[in-house]
Amino acid sequence: MTETVPLSAAYWRGFRQGLPFMLVIAPFGMLFGVAGNEAGLNLVEVMGFSVLVIAGASQFTAVQLMNDHASTVMVILAALAVNLRMAMYSAALAPHLGPAPAWKRALVAYFMVDQVFALADADYRIAPRQSLAAKLAYYAGACTPVCPLWYVSTLAGAVLGQAIPPAFALDFAVPVTFLAMIAPLLRSIPHLVAAAVSIVMALVFAFLPAGTGLILAAALAMVAGAQTELFLARRKERT
């Protein structure tokens, strides 16, 4: 049975829960603006990255490879590999948002950033019987404080560039963002196994170029988590 949730209440709940991420989105976006500036990109090119791609991790990967004079094909493939996690995000939200009209699904896909997915996934797990409209309203609310700020902070970083003192240490935003998203999701043994494997393998493969090690570590972590879940399910069946 579908639960009746006022759309405005769903929207503002998403908005409120998205607000804390502003503390890390602002420096994260500014950091990319600075990085793009230092890589020789002009203002239009930097903003094009953030508006069209809207995916910080792959944007940093692409700029790093461009700085290293990698081929265009390598830049595109590496950025796509980093963004493969979005396919998993889409699969996780499809049971909840899949019935939406195509244009709404397109908007959901465009605004699907790590922070918004983490919030939406957690909310839908807690209240899976919300109506489709309420789930979309929550998603829109979660996007509101996060996505526009990404554009604005990127612009600020690109314009200010070297005027931002190194003492500000904007790069703290990257690990803090992912810690804030991942920590609440570590609720089971498979999740913990996947997290542990990803950490260990990322360190083992740290010598590999262009973030390749992170991709391999992520793949091994997913396999480890899935196998752990299967093992626990089989053990439960036997008992």
Characterise this structure.
This protein is mostly helical. The chain folds into two domains: 164 residues, no CATH class; 54 residues. It is 74% helix and 0% strand. The protein is built from 13 helices and no strands. Belongs to the AzlC family. It is a multi-pass membrane protein. Pfam families: AzlC (PF03591). Keywords: Cell membrane, Membrane, Transmembrane, Transmembrane helix, Transport.
Put simply, the count of helices is: 13
**Percent range of helical residues:** over 70%
If you average the pLDDT, what whole number results?
83
Query: What Rg, in angstroms, do the CA atoms define?
Result: 19 Å
Strand content: under 5%
Total domain modules: 2
User: Low-confidence stretches at least 5 residues in length (pLDDT < 50)?
Assistant: none
Which class best fits the helix and strand makeup?
mainly alpha
Spell out the helices and strands N to C: HHHHHHHHHHHHH
Q: What is the 3D shape?
A: globular
- Major pleated sheet: none
Distance between the termini: 33 Å
Number of β-strand runs: 0
Q: What topology emerges from the helices and strands here?
A:
Elements: H1 7-18, H2 22-38, H3 43-53, H4 56-67, H5 72-82, H6 85-97, H7 102-110, H8 114-126, H9 132-143, H10 147-160, H11 173-182, H12 189-204, H13 212-238
Subcellular location: Cell membrane
InterPro entries: Brnchd-chn_aa_trnsp_permease (IPR011606)
Pfam family, one: AzlC
